[in-house]
Amino acid sequence: MENILMFFLLIMLVPFFILSIFMPFWTRKTESFGVTIPEEVFHHPKLQTMRNKYARYTTILSIIGIAAFMLLGLTATTEEATSIYFAVIVVSFLIINFIIYLKFHKEMKTFKEQENWAKEKTQHVFVDIRFRQNKLTYSYGWFIIPILVTVGLIIITFQNYQRIPELIPMQYNFEGEVTNWATKSYRSVLILPIMTIYQNLLFIFINIIIAQAKQQINPDNPEESIRKNVIFRRRWSAFSIVSSFALTLLFSVIQLSFIYSTNERIITIVSLVVTAFILLAALFLAVTTGQGGSRVKGVNSTTDTTINRDDDRYWKLGQFYFNKNDPSLFLEKRFGVGWTINCARPLVWIILIAIIGLFIGIPQFLGM
What we know:
The chain crosses the membrane at residues 6-26, 54-76, 82-102, 140-161, 190-210, 236-260, 266-287, 347-366. By secondary structure, this protein is mainly alpha-helical. The protein has 9 helices and 10 strands. It has 2 domains: 1-119; 122-303 and 305-368, no CATH class. The longest helix is centred in the N-terminal third of the chain and has 37 residues, at 79-115. It is globular and about 75 Å long.
């Protein structure tokens, strides 16, 4: 069974490593290793060399990580040990990968100072007051479907409460064997449905972030930049909706298995398929869309006399945004695909603590 788990975790590692290796190629063309640059400089030979070197270093690190995990995994005698090895490999990779990034971030800052691209260009901040009038996300009404499914699941659970065994299986290994049980109670049978509602509300919140995140428009070609940014937001909005449906399906299958006799292997297979689907879909979006729609086909910049305002001073290490004068809570990542937070806004931390607190507190309250 440990070999099955190891194989599945390896499948999870591959898209994770691919995202890390090619990240410099998927960022906006106005940014390089967390540093603001003119768009036409993105294809400068020096920067191309830096991106290729970063990809090589990260590829080598990924190969070492996979090899180490396979060697450790083969010595593991339990699934718990395999999972611990996996966590150690991932954390180690993230730390070393960040150190590699910092090397290139520092090199990029030095190169920018030497070239002084802003000397002959005018810095602009372009704000479209009608930007929010665009349809930035898909309708929130889509989330009503999985929530209604979950409500129906709760009703079915109460109607068939007597059919549920006294011990409820809460965790399976990759052989379909139960490894964790919970005593039946009205609270314990609601753990999965309530967590399903929680994750659907979380996806709604993510959709709100996608719609309300700070706009970032390239002043060189604002119309094209807006078009790409709208596509970027709508694609990730669709991803959040599809992920919500997929996870609701997974939790529903598990919940119904408490009531109706179900082959444990089916639950394992559904779990694997849903997880793999979400990971591969995220990778596909990153490859085809890029950060802010940078990989969406379109017209290149129309001028080389203006550049985005240089706000590097607000980005610590090129990744952590601190600007107490910026009312925005969420904005695009500098290095990566997706969104990050304005660390200088206390409300952001309150929101994050609430999300984490509910995630931990709900199962505890329901007696898991």
